[in-house]
Amino acid sequence: MPPHSSNLPTALALALALLASSASAAEKTAPTIPPGPLAQALSTFAERSGITLSFSPENVQNLTTQGTQPGGTLDEALARLLQGTNLSPHKTQSGYVILPTATDTSLQLDPTNIDANASQSAFAPVSGYYASNASSATKTDRPILETAQSVSVVTAAQIADRKVDRVEDAVAYTAGVRVGSSGLDPRFDMISVRGFETTMSADFLDGLRQPGSGWLSLYQTEAYNLERIEVVKGPASVLYGQISPGGMVNRVSKRPSLDARNEVQIQAGNYNHQQGQFDLGGRLDEQGDLLYRVVGVYRDAENYIEQLNNDVRLIAPSLSWQIDPDTRLTLLAQYQERETAGSPMLYQQGEHLSNFWQGDEYFDKLEQRQWTLGYEFEHILNDTFTFQQNLRYGQVDTTNQYMQPFQERGSVLDRQAVGVYENMTSLSTDTRLVSRFDTGSLRHTLVSGWDYALLETDLLYAMGPGPSIDRYAPDYHQPVARPNTAWADEDGLEHRSGLYLQDQIEIDRWRLSAGLRRDKVDVRRSNHLAGSKRKDDDAATTGSIGALYLFDNGVAPYASYATSFLPQSSSQPDGSPYKATEGEQYELGVKYQPPGSSTLLTASLYHLTQQNVLTRDLADPTRSIATGEQTSKGLELEAVSDLSERLKLTASYSYNDAEVTKSNDGNQGKQPLNVPRHLASMWLDYRLPFGLGLGAGARYTGSNFGDAANTQKNEGYTLVDAGVHYDFAGDLDGVRLGFNARNLLDKRYINCQQGYCYRGEARSLVTSLSYRW
């Protein structure tokens, strides 16, 4: 990677000043909407124009619209949509609200809180922490309040206010989510949902799987490039196939939008942190049918262990084309380079090891180059049918090298060099038909589709001799030869496909859902060391049902049942795969959105079971069999609110009573590894009238066990984060100066698992200067 550059802040500051002096806001041009049901037309209008649009479902029920024609402003287009309906649009500070024409608008609530019954798009920017809609749980743009499942959304505003770079850090305040189980390991995001890891199986970008190779080759997503992160709790196999029973994490990319704000920003912080980033977009034609957006990040930084780089180079362009009133195409591309290294392992606990790193600065590294190219296509066939197809092709090349101690001689550690060299190519597609129709008093939104994923991998895992190191007088710059003894040399080809059907039904105030899916997996492996080849396949059927009742006062109780499956990553001694794990969840919950507010409160109870977990074969202790079982029973409470234009809040508490319920390993009745019973968090951001803003939060992770026998306990810990920002006015309107601290109190903690111990992230400080327009 390029060396540190002292000219970076100066150059970026100059670019910021030039852009600040020349930027101006452009008048938005309205999208073209075809005739049809008014509710659908308003939702489509909000999504395509990137605005917040609020309306009461009762006011638009059974109404139709003649649509809009090309050109014109948003106000003119909305008036045309509502022509002949006795409804009219009213503009507020946060968007538009649709009211009966005879309504006395002087009786409206505070405009900052009027997005309550919102038709916010699940893909367009939202101004605060509260998001009314999400797409991941249903593959449609649907209100979270009306979804019979626990769904959390981390918006771009939350990411920006906390100044986080990684997805793992962005979801740290989300109910039911545990991060940092391996301490600081910037190579990938370690995220658990309801006690089950999601890193390898439930990593999604824009609703398409980001597959992993099973070793260390994983797609990495920079948080700044995301419009939001949606966390769906519990099994989601009906729509997404092979997935962790705990849930899924769907990253939603920034994409062209008339409502997106441009930004340039520079940062500086401790551990030689230097970063510049920009988010630019707008119209390419007068009508606004062709929109673009470009996101870029340049980071030169280290971690608190100075030998661990944290360098990133990212460019992510996107283009949206409204081909005609019924057809839209969005192209999404990304190129990223990064360099970092693995988390140091402590082979014995104690403060005397707190500043020791067992690697070599020139040899240890994870270098990764990745790129992706894809599209999202939508064509409205008629008032009933909409055809959608998403596709993404990508490649990841990874070099992961590290020094591994294998013997201690007093203060001297004997080490060997390890190298993992991987190339991974993937293709993910999802083709679906969304059908909206009525059968009597039942209003259906039927999603039927087929998704397919291809994963091709090439792996070399090698070891070799390495120099020793004295932990009291370490030399981090010794010559290390590239490992040349291959322990694994193989390639693989996986085909994953699934047919799915999910119906969302509205009848009066009931919201019902039912889904069914059939999955098929074909895997081919070639072991070049053994000269062997193997082909395996698996198939599974999964389903889900849910029911929710929407009261007038904003209370929505719900119940749901869902199943999942996930093939095992390891193989039996003969090379054949173990039986796939199966998940099953019962969930009861209640959501509450006070009418006229931008607040969502969620409480959920769940019972989640994973079967076919690997355990020892009593007939042959050297082998494993897939007969184990693990359960998680818990409670989650979450609050997200834009209490006012100036005050924003997120808060959560999670209780998880996890247990190994079937096992031959002597741990039956014990808690699973690294699953704390208690998680809690709260973050508040308050902006004072004169431009000064304050943000503060705390994250608590309860104690957990690092071994199967529950004899090694990791103590709980609390991390405090904080931020201060000042928004300039007058000629400097749009300029913000900020200061953020993660782990403000510099809490040092250690987390151990299966004999290895890892340090958590130390305090990090970042100063930022940004301009938005």
Automatic annotation (TrEMBL):
Domain (Secretin/TonB short N-terminal) ranges: 51-101
Keyword Transport included in the entry's annotation: yes
SUPFAM superfamilies: Porins
Membrane topology field: Multi-pass membrane protein
Pfam families: Plug, TonB_dep_Rec_b-barrel
Chief location bin: membrane
InterPro entries, A to Z: Beta-barrel_TonB (IPR000531), Beta-barrel_TonB_sf (IPR036942), Plug_dom (IPR012910), Plug_dom_sf (IPR037066), Secretin/TonB_short_N (IPR011662), TonB-dep_rcpt-like (IPR039426), TonB_sidphr_rcpt (IPR010105)
Family in the record: Belongs to the TonB-dependent receptor family.
Protein name as annotated: TonB-dependent siderophore receptor
